[in-house]
Design brief:
single chain; 186 residues; alpha/beta; 7 helices
């Protein structure tokens, strides 16, 4: 971390903001936007980065990556169940409780307060979830709007098997080559 006494602001972990876009552009660095935290702001952040980009030793032209949280399943209901496991863990973390990802059944049986329901809704809306075709269609729309040079996806859910299945479904929907998963994950 660079300190303020050296004339620079200290970086405090990953951020997805206009500040990060302006800083990366000013320094001529690649920019990674954590769209899994705020997918609705990805296009504006990437445009800000491109508009303000200054070529430097690292890059002559802007290069931007956007990361999206995804959960694809064989049907919409299962995708939403897995997404709720993740959103419950995020809600717990935000309220200073264990970040442990509950099972879909544990998440479904949890009685939420009104404020917790708002947090869950916000996190659920930040995950691109549904069938593989629905998820890839949403990714394609976001790609068209924001035009990142690279998209990274992070499958979210309860079990390693659900995460792997989600990734495989999306890869198949995108017609990507497959690489066998280690036996320990299956």
């Amino acid at each position: 971390m660079l300190s303020a006494r050296h004339g620079r602001t200290a970086a405090r972990g990953p951020r997805s903001s206009g500040y990060s876009a302006r800083l990366a552009a000013h320094l001529g660095l690649p920019f990674a936007f954590a769209a899994h935290l705020s997918p609705g702001h990805v296009a504006a952040a990437l445009q800000l980065y491109r508009d303000r980009f200054t070529p430097a030793a690292v890059l002559a032209e802007p290069y931007a990556l956007a990361n999206f949280a995804v959960m694809a399943a064989d049907d919409e209901h299962e995708a939403l169940r897995q997404t709720h496991s993740y959103t419950h863990s995020m809600m717990r973390m935000l309220h200073g409780r264990s970040y442990l990802v509950p099972t879909p059944d544990e998440a479904a049986s949890y009685s939420c307060t009104a404020s917790e329901q708002q947090v869950l809704g916000r996190w659920t809306n930040s995950v691109l979830h549904g069938t593989p075709d629905q998820v890839t269609a949403h990714l394609n729309r976001l790609h068209e709007a924001a035009r990142p040079d690279e998209i990274m996806i992070a499958s979210v859910g309860h079990t390693p098997q659900a995460l792997l299945h989600s990734t495989e479904l999306i890869a198949d929907a995108c017609i990507l080559p497959t690489t066998p998963a280690p036996a320990s994950v299956r």
